[in-house]
Design a protein that fits this description.
The protein has 2 domains: about 45-290, TIM Barrel (Alpha-Beta Barrel), CATH 3.20.20.10; about 295-425, Lyase, Ornithine Decarboxylase, Chain A, domain 1 (Beta Barrel). Helix content is about 30%, strand content about 25%. By secondary structure, it is of the alpha/beta class. Strand 9 (about 155-160) and strand 10 form a beta hairpin. It has an 11-stranded mixed β-sheet with strand order 2-1-25-3-16-24-21-22-23-20-17. Strands 5, 6, 7, 8, 11, 12, 13 and 14 form an 8-stranded parallel β-sheet that branches. Its cofactor is pyridoxal 5'-phosphate. Pfam families: Ala_racemase_C, Ala_racemase_N. One of its GO terms (molecular function) is pyridoxal phosphate binding. One of its GO terms (biological process) is alanine metabolic process.
């Protein structure tokens, strides 16, 4: 049975930041023409309920006290950050993480409420935007904390009656920061020995600390280094935890492997979308065993089919030559949509029954060509990315084919691809 309703989101411009998303509630029928709703011969279908289901499964691996910070950076790993976050708000989740202040701004402008952390090493240039849109920075050095404190002083005024700091334009509480500690990844964060000075700087400047965090470098397949990182983190934060400061460390791989799942927060990213942290069969099998499932399918149908004689050449650089008469279908998507050019001559599409059809010729910016049989018409739907773990064109298997990881497959999906959102609830 199809879901009760579908949300059709209009395409965004390539800038994609300042636009307000338009929503249309559509009653789903078994014969719904989703291509018409998408306004294009290709689109992404996102199952919002699958995302929530995945979060619940991951939460079940944690202690009862542990809360979820949903990572929706990089357009929610290609799934659509605004739509995903708004849906999770309706489900009762109000902790999010993004990578940049611009990503947080987009969420706020589209009505997302709650705590939004900006990950990484936040810099001075982001401060004004973070204050304006009530975003929580990740502080990793004293210089940033001093700039943050100075900027707060310019944006806020003290109310004499109760001493509360109130924004001149809003009623937000005084902005907090997250302190990040580098426990071995050697990328973002202060060193463990520097944590004390950063915490003192926050205290001296009246800056509330939301939490202290770290990030694992190889939680999926290196238990020794992960346990060592966790040990360093817990030692560095022990005194602050006794004072009630919250801490968090676990990403998707750590949650799945059981590291740091008893702390105050976990930060699922890739796994909450049902994509595996690694492209291996073992990772995919573990996802299935846990009951996780991919939330996204990429669907397309041909815009043109030609019967060509033997000897004809197809695509840029005439990369494919017909050895006999063949039917060649053209699809209106390409590497500008996120279909990797390295899939030229080796990628496949599958029909609804799972039958494979080979990409022939070069993947170009806006088109791919596929050898098809007589059963295929311009009305035949195909999966470009199938929402499972076993098909040759699942995100895991495409990543393995490209010698990369499922993260790159999801985050490469262009904003020019229409996204249709499925949910059972009419008001979501």
């Amino acid at each position: 049975m199809p879901p009760v309703s579908v949300k059709d989101v209009t395409n965004k411009s390539q800038e994609g930041i300042n636009l307000t998303t338009k929503w249309q509630i559509i009653q789903v029928k078994p014969n719904l023409d989703e291509f018409s709703q998408a306004g294009r011969s290709t689109y992404l279908r996102v199952d919002l309920e699958a995302i929530w289901n995945n979060i619940q499964i991951l939460k079940g691996k944690c202690s009862e006290k542990t809360e979820v910070i949903a990572v929706v950076k990089a357009n929610a790993y290609g799934h659509g950050s605004v739509e995903v976050a708004r849906y999770l708000n309706k489900c009762g989740l109000f902790h999010f993480a993004v990578a940049t202040a611009l990503e947080g701004k987009e969420l706020r402008e589209n009505g997302v409420t709650g705590y939004i952390q900006v990950l990484g090493n936040c810099v001075e240039e982001e401060i004004n935007m973070m204050l304006k849109y009530n975003l929580t920075p990740t502080a990793t050095n004293l210089q940033f904390i001093k700039k943050w404190a100075a900027s707060i002083a310019q944006h806020y005024e003290r109310v004499p009656s109760n001493g509360m700091l109130i924004n001149v334009d809003t009623d937000w509480d005084k902005p907090k920061v997250v302190i990040k500690v580098d426990t071995g990844m050697s990328r973002n964060g202060c060193q463990c020995k520097e944590l004390k000075s950063l915490m003192e700087a926050c205290e001296n400047n009246g800056i509330p600390v939301h939490s202290i965090m770290t990030h694992f470098a190889q939680a999926w397949d290196d238990p020794l280094s992960t346990q060592e990182q966790l040990k360093r983190f817990l030692e560095a934060t022990k005194s602050y935890r006794c004072m009630g400061v919250k801490v968090h460390a676990a990403n998707s791989a750590a949650i799945m492997q059981g590291y740091a799942t008893d702390l105050d927060f976990v930060r699922p990213g890739i796994a909450m979308y049902g994509l595996a942290p690694e492209p291996t069969p073992e990772a995919a099998a573990m996802m299935q065993t846990m009951g996780l499932r991919p939330a996204l399918a990429w669907i397309a149908r041909p815009c043109l089919i030609k019967s060509l004689d033997a000897g004809r050449k197809v695509g840029y650089n005439q990369a494919y030559r017909l050895k006999q008469q063949e039917r060649i279908a053209t699809f209106s998507f390409g590497y500008a949509d996120g279909y990797n050019r390295l899939l030229s001559g080796k990628g496949v599409l599958t029909d609804v029954s799972g039958k494979e059809y080979e990409i022939v010729g070069r993947v170009s910016m806006d088109a791919v060509t596929v050898r098809v049989d007589d059963s295929v018409t311009v009305q035949t739907p195909f999966y470009v990315i199938r929402d499972d773990y076993n098909s040759p064109n699942s995100a895991s298997n495409i990543a393995q084919m490209l010698d990369t990881i499922p993260y790159e497959i999801g985050t490469s999906l262009s904003i020019r691809l229409p996204r249709i959102y499925h949910t059972k609830h009419k008001d979501n």
